[in-house]
Write a structure and sequence with these properties.
The termini are far apart. The protein is an alpha/beta fold. The longest helix has 18 residues. The chain has a single domain, classed as 3-Layer(aba) Sandwich (Rossmann fold). Strand 2, helix 1 and strand 3 form a beta-alpha-beta unit. 28% of the residues lie in helices and 19% in strands. It is globular and about 40 Å long. 42% of the residues are buried.
């Protein structure tokens, strides 16, 4: 069942067929593609493609990420399928996985992280901006190898939407999964994107080697 689709994906930057790489940006609950698309401008990389899908009714799945994943079905599987479709589109344009980045905020962050562990491979980077893996910390996970993928996990210390123990658990899990984890815990309770996160994102794209 597909509740979401890629029909109205916002496309920015270079065409996929000419792009050096691609970044998929995922908005949060109640937000929009236009909101998260602002991150495309921070990369300062006009030779990248930026794909920004839209969730049906501005929500990827109905319940909080803390509940068992089954309680967010079939919306969760449909949302993950949107990312998979965009990744396949980039691969069809001959962009390797190592030049694909995933970044999301809040619900979109949880979705990006969850997609990564369900589709393990070496990505350019994965950024969970105020998010964590979906499901209780007791959720069973397969042993996977992310081959050194840079992964950012960050949020405010007292974020009302992201319990800090879930972020810590996710950081530990990604370390076991052989990701290169960067963890930021910011003082306060603001549910927002911080300057340090933007700097990290910029550095990931800037550090990618040019295509020979």
């Amino acid at each position: 069942m597909h509740l979401h689709d890629t029909t109205h994906t916002l496309r920015m930057g270079a065409p996929l067929t000419k792009a050096r790489g691609v970044v998929i940006l995922l908005h949060g609950r109640g937000s929009s593609a236009e909101d998260i698309a602002g991150l495309a401008h921070v990369f300062d990389a006009t030779d990248f493609a930026y794909l920004v899908p839209r969730a049906a009714n501005n929500t990827w799945y109905p319940h909080r990420f803390l509940v068992p994943p089954s309680q967010n079905e079939p919306w969760l599987s449909s949302a993950l399928a949107v990312i998979d479709t965009l990744v396949a589109e980039a691969r069809a344009a001959r962009i390797p996985y190592e030049r694909m980045g995933l970044a999301g905020f809040s619900q979109g962050a949880c979705l990006a992280l969850e997609f990564t562990v369900r589709h393990p491979r070496r990505y350019a980077f994965v950024a969970g901006l105020s998010g964590a893996l979906i499901g209780p910390t007791s959720t069973a996970r397969d042993a996977i190898d992310l081959r050194g993928t840079p992964v950012l996990l960050a949020c405010a210390e007292h974020d009302a939407h992201i319990p800090i123990e879930y972020l810590e658990h996710s950081a530990a899990a990604f370390t076991v999964f052989n990701a290169e984890v960067t963890r930021h815990i910011f003082p306060g309770s603001a549910h927002t994107i911080y300057r340090e996160e933007i700097d990290w994102l910029k550095s990931q794209v800037a550090d990618l080697p040019r295509v020979a």
